[in-house]
Amino acid sequence: xxxxxxxxxxxxxxxxxxxxxxxxxxxxxxxSPAALKEAERLDNLPPITPHGTKTAVDHSGRAQKxxxxxxxxxxxxxxxxxxxxxxxxxxxxxxxxxxxxxTAKVVNTQNGKEATVRVEDRGPYVDGRVxxxxxxxxxxxxxxxxxxxxxxxxxxxxxxxxxxxxxxAGAADASPQExxxxxxxTKQLAGD
Length: 192
Known about the structure:
Distance between the termini: 48 Å
Helix content: 25-40%
């Protein structure tokens, strides 16, 4: 009886793994019309709101909503999750659950200002916050003295577990040049 249950569980897990793997492998090349159509579909879905201080890595490319904060000065030149040092003037962000290497558009929903960032670090470890940005990006978003603002984060290019790149919700309203640049940067960062 136990052996049968174990075998059944193993078969279910194998089936789930194969279904998940084929779904991931089925992502169309980022420069194809099918990839852009998928990005438009993702953009039409309501943004998700990740909860908790640690969440699973999300390769879906779906938009997220929550709050953004920015790195304090004492983080300057500290190592980030990808091993690089934080440059406060770089277009860099930390995310709890977007894959490292993701290129995303961050939109301040209070004023409509937006900036494109590269996810190179983990955090913020505060519930309700979806992204930490560098002081340069905070200035572009006009976060100012508020310190924390409501945002929507729309991934443009998302690295996949198989080494590929998938277009996300942010690619739906990006120019072909922005998509190409985001895809190149994502491939480069994911390859490091």
